[in-house]
Design brief:
40% helix; globular; 2 domains; three-stranded antiparallel β-sheet; alpha+beta
Length: 151
């Protein structure tokens, strides 16, 4: 590395926290409480034993040889995911059990789009297209700091 390079480590921004540092106790406690209320989906797997994810964070997975081992692993994975979201200022998903949906919207799509959405929803562990679209859209909104929401 060149000593006078604009990209040298001397000129690089200092991280505010070490990457391997533990979460602050208050963040970890809040994350455990949130993640502990998520709905977990567990399936038997030929190669791994059991695989689990959650309705609220369907892209967070864990596995274990036994159901108990898998459950403990997904609890830990969800806690880490939620703590990370909290630490960077993102709003983690509210537990599915605490929300009652009373509003409906209609979206017209082609039959090909419907097949693509159904396949994507299924492969990502969603129960259906509606859950998939809602989750993807809301995650996009909440993870974009340029979008101002009143929610």
């Amino acid at each position: 590395m060149l000593k006078n390079s604009k990209h040298s480590s001397k000129n690089a921004a200092k991280p505010t926290k070490k990457l391997n540092a533990p979460f602050a106790e208050n963040i970890l406690h809040k994350a455990q409480k949130i993640a502990g209320s998520y709905r977990i989906i567990m399936d038997k797997n030929e190669n791994l034993g059991f695989v689990a994810n959650s309705v609220e964070l369907p892209t967070v997975f864990a596995d274990g040889k036994t159901p108990d081992e898998c459950y403990k692993a997904i609890e830990k994975a969800l806690t880490v995911a939620v703590a990370t979201m909290l630490e960077v200022g993102q709003k983690p998903p509210v537990p599915a059990s605490s929300r009652i949906r009373t509003e409906q919207i209609n979206v017209r799509i082609t039959s090909e789009e419907k097949m693509l959405l159904a396949d994507a929803a299924s492969s990502m562990g969603f129960k259906g297209i509606s859950d998939f679209i809602r989750n993807i859209a809301l995650n996009r909104i909440f993870s974009n700091p340029n979008i101002k929401t009143t929610a």
